Structures are given as C-alpha cells and as structure tokens.
Input
Amino acid sequence: MRSSEPAFVCWHYGEVVQIKRSNTAPDGQVLILGLDEVVLPPALTPSGTDLRLIPDGARRWALVAATTDDWVRLGADAVRTVPAGTLGFRTPPTDEQLRAFAKGWRLAGYRYPRTAADKTLLVPVDIDLPAVDATLAARDLVNTPSNTKNPAWMVRQARRVAKAAGAQIEVLDVRRLRTEGFGGVLAVGAASASPPRVVVLRKPGRGPRVALIGKGITFDSGGLSLKPRESMVLMKTDMAGAAAVLSAVPLIPADMDVTVLLGLAENCLGADSYRPGDVITHVDGSTSEVRNTDAEGRLVLADLLAYARLRLQPDVMVDLATLTGAATVALSREMGALYSPSAPLGAALRAAGDEVGERLWPMPLEQGYRTSLRSDIADQSHVSDASVGAGSITAALYLQRFAGDVPWAHLDIAGPARSTASAGRARLRRHRVRGGPAGPVADRWCPVRVGTTAGRRPARRWRGGAAS
Output
C-alpha cells in the first residue's frame, strides 16, 4: 500500500476490521527503553519481559517495554495489558518486528465470540499473516457451539474454504457412504438427527501426493457408553483435527498435491446407536469389534485412512485427532503425541512443530501391545482389553493397520487442542508465542495443531477435542 499519507491497518482480535489513512494519534503508545525518550523511576523501569502501563496525559496512556528480541511475545503481552482503545508506536519498529508484534497481538487477543472492536493496533503498513488467519479460523471452528456446528454446517464451511482456495470438493452423503463401505462413519453417526458426511477436498499439484485426514466429531456424547456430564460439556471441540486440516488448506504451496479428508459425524444416543459388541466393516473390507462406543473417533479415522490408501494412492498420510485422554495424561496439554513408523516423516513433523511453537513428542508403536486388540469375531477390536493400559499407543496401533505400507503419521492432539488461555500463559513463560499452521509445517505435509491460545477468556474457552 503506497500513499503520501500513512496507511493504518486496524487489527481486532485476529481480524482486519478496516484500513485507515489517517494521522490520528492513538489513545496509547508503545515506548521502548533505549529507543524512545522515556524516563521512569528505577522501581517502575521494566526489565526482561515486564511491561509498565503508565498515564500519559489526560485520558491517555503509554506502554513501556524493555528492548526485546521476541516481538511476538511483546505483542501478546501488550494485548493483554492495554485498556480499550487504539495503540501505536512512538517510534515505528522495523517491518519484521512489526509483523512479529502483530502476530502476537492477534493470537493472544483472540476471543470467542467476536465482539465489537475495543482494542485496535495501528500500524503504518499492510501486514499479511496467513498462518495466523488459519490459526484463528481453526479456533473459531472449534469454539462454535454444537447446536450450530453439525456435519452439515461443517460441510458448508468446507465449501467456503474450497471456493476461496480454488480447490476441488466432493461431499459423500449417506448413500455414497453406504456404497463406498464407510461402516465406521455410518455407525458413529447413526443415532444423530444430522447425518454423517465425508468431505474430500483436493488441490492437485506436481509434487508428492499428500493426504491430510481430520477427525470431525461435531459433538460426542459417548453414545451408549455415555460420558459423565462433566466430560460432555466441551465435546463441541471433538472436531479439532478436522478444523486443523481444513484451516491449513489456504497455506498449501502451489506445487503440492494435497487431499484433505474430513470425517464428520455426531456421536449421539438413540434407538439407532451402535452398540458394544457390534462388528463394523470398513472401506477396505476389514472388520472391527466395538468394545466402547465412546471410542468413536478411531472408527471414523479407520475408514478415512483406508479410503485414502486405496482410492488416492498417496505418498504420505497424516491424520490429526483429539483421540485419547491417555495422550493428555502422558504429555499434558503442552504437547501432542506423534506416532509414525517412518522416521523421516516423524522427524519432519516434529521439526515443523518446533518451528511454530507446537511441540510434538514421539511415541512408540509398541507391537507387543497389539495382542490386546485381538478379537474372536472380527479382524481386531478397536479398543484394547484390560490386560494393557497405554490407551494412546493401542489406539495408534489400531489405526496403523488401515494405513498399510503408506508412510503415515498419527497426531493425537487431545491435550493441546484443549489448551486454555491460562495454559497458553504458562507456555508463554517458557516459549515464544507462535501458532500454526505455518508455511513450513504445510511444507512438511501436515498443519500439526492450529494455534497457541493465549487470550483472556475464562478457562472453559477451549481450542479444540475427546478421548475417542
């Protein structure tokens, strides 16, 4: 944007709300020690990452910060600290510093639902942050209540994304799901008034064929294996895997051949509910014995993995799912569990996660635990028996069979997808505030988890999904 006047882009909680061409002074300014003329008593002089909010004339204020190398963190701290109004810099930082500051401002200032603009950052350049846009889009999908968000609603969001990204989209309805043999998807969604759907969104390219697969359970009651009330409250988040891969579509490089698959269903309780003891036939003809209807996510993923392997013939597959509470117990909400029999793929995903501040921890596909998935009436049980714990590992072992020989990775994001604002602040004390998916992550075949929540909402504002 070129003009003889300064151009101001106004950011509000992750959204560009307007572009101003104005010299209007902001309500408050960021002052940097050593750069701007500011003198404070020693007791009020900030050090390290401290910020000081001080009066600056009638109805004005200044935010004083020490010099910093971490402008993302500075932006995140600033949006939490400043009062309502507009904020600018007394001395404009470099373009790189300003982009980093705006990134932290937008990620940490996110809140749901969106409200009227009460905090606005004024910057003299047009800043494009597509990875942050994707992060916040995923957060919005995850936070949308399930009385709005059902499989049909998610299909509409996928159509919008496909249209904007110039991608091809195909939606498999119940008739197609029956024809194609999606026994897992159909079983999980059978009791819901909102029928299940599978979305296949494709961006053809010249590079390796990549399949990104997302679990999209728009609400999870547990079915006949009913969840306790407390565990059910936040089950609107059980589609965080689908939100992650769908929101990453605009970030796919032009030379990559990527197909995104979303398995969309509601796991409800009703006369048509599937039952413990049922035997389900999947897309590849293999069968699963149901032991727990609250472990529905892996049944959906099994169909999608088999479909991708047989129909798409990908060079690599990555699935993302809020799959098990066991992963959260093992790794907390600070990092996701990474399973892959391919060392290069696992290393690439882990490096990508480190780059965007979304840590992944490699977990073992311990083949000795596979005996716990044995079934007398099906090819395997979808949940292990009582002889072994290791719930996250046995879930990954169950899925591995459907991936076949294709290089594959499974990201169990049940912990970090539900990370709260308070958890984000705890992480901020140790790490940079970043937020995926970012370009380097998409380059490594996976959007990993979308976003680092560091907002100011109560602890029940979750980012993403269920132990299933």
The first strand starts at residue 8 and ends at 12. DSSP finds 14 helices and 18 strands in the chain. The chain has a mean pLDDT of 85.
